[in-house]
Amino acid sequence: MSLHLRYAAISDRGVVRQGNQDSVFAGAHFIAVADGMGGMAAGDLASAIVINTVARLDVPPPADSVVDELADAVADANRAIRRCVADDPQKEGMGTTLTALWFDGEWFNLVHIGDSRAYRMREGAFEQITVDDTYVQMLVDEGRITAEEAERHPQRSLLLRALGASEVEPAFQTIKGVPGDRLLLCSDGLSGPVSDADIARTLQGAATPQEAAETLVQQALDAGAPDNVTVLVADVIADDPGEQRQLIGGAAADARLAESDTAVLRAVKEAEEPKADAEAETEEVQPKARKQGRVWRTILACLIVLTLAAGGGMWWVRTQYFIGVSDAGNISVYRGLPFEVAGYRVAWVEVDSGRAAEDAVDDVETELESGIRADGIEDAESRLGELVDPAPTNANLDPLCSSADTGADSVPAAASDCRED
Questions:
Q1: Of 53, 71, 103, 375, which has fewest CB within 10 angstroms of its CB?
Q2: Sign of the alpha-carbon dihedral angle for 410, 397, 357, 390
Q3: CA-angle at 181, arms to 180 and 184, nearest 5°
Q4: What residues contact residue 248 under an 8 Å CB cut-off, 6+ apart?
Q5: 289-316: per-residue pLDDT in tens?
């Protein structure tokens, strides 16, 4: 017996946010929710790219290789985000969650990455069928905190995995559909302010998916809705519901992102083109020292990811220090790591010297961009003092434009090679 879906979807900006970075898609064979992140780095663009890429799966799945095709679509979506960042480096850091189900009339093929959730109500029993890719969920899994403590944890929104990173590892699973099942896909704009108990009561009591979706969104709004709220409810039914139109909402339906010449469709189109053979491309030979640096950073990054997965990783990260460049362009001491972990920067400014990084000599400025490692906060502050020492003899900074001692002007090699104190 072939089963069918009856669905409804709503995406709301919420009470606090000025824009909507969530995206949602619902069709007869494919349903998905994506929650963009990145703020000014275009989280709305990331979720729109992903939804517009994977929406091509709203067709009956093939008899075999379903997981492979689902994985390929997600990889195409991630590649589209990375290409968009390559075109505009200011968008570095944008990313998105994705929770989606591909339905063949009997089985659901689930793909999940991030903290947008999938729930199921079956014969009065309510359960979450996805596992959040978050730091606090890792602590719960290890038994270090309870689920109740996780709901109040200050780092509950810290993701360990999301689309937009250079390497992604979504979770896949297969779930059998049963007539009477009610499925919910949602962003954390719902699961954050509204308790599982309230969500369960709403799903149990609503007569239709539309009623359930409207009620859930209103509950989030009544709770303050600090984030965008996206809800997709789908009922598994035995009778053919007749023709249902595809639903697309949130950022993916934004007219400003849906025009033919926008980054969304350009990125989607490029993601679907055959990929060039990377081995056929010639690369410029890099100096041996630079190659060794890249190998060292790659190895260390892998070790960090393993450490995070093993537990206690965030504590270790917070014991690391380096000197880098702040968002204001100043030489600063950072607590954390001078590179991305799972595609995201894990670092916090501890001391901002107020000295512009562009005042440093070229070699030092290059080192600052990569991050100068330090052995603890004292070593970091000591090195910072050496770097920003205003003495004219400081070899780390460009020479002064004038000499206060002699009253005579010094003559740097170029106007841009001097500084003023």
A1: 375
A2: negative
A3: 140
A4: 23, 24, 25, 26, 51, 55
A5: 334 444 445 555 555 544 444 444 454 5
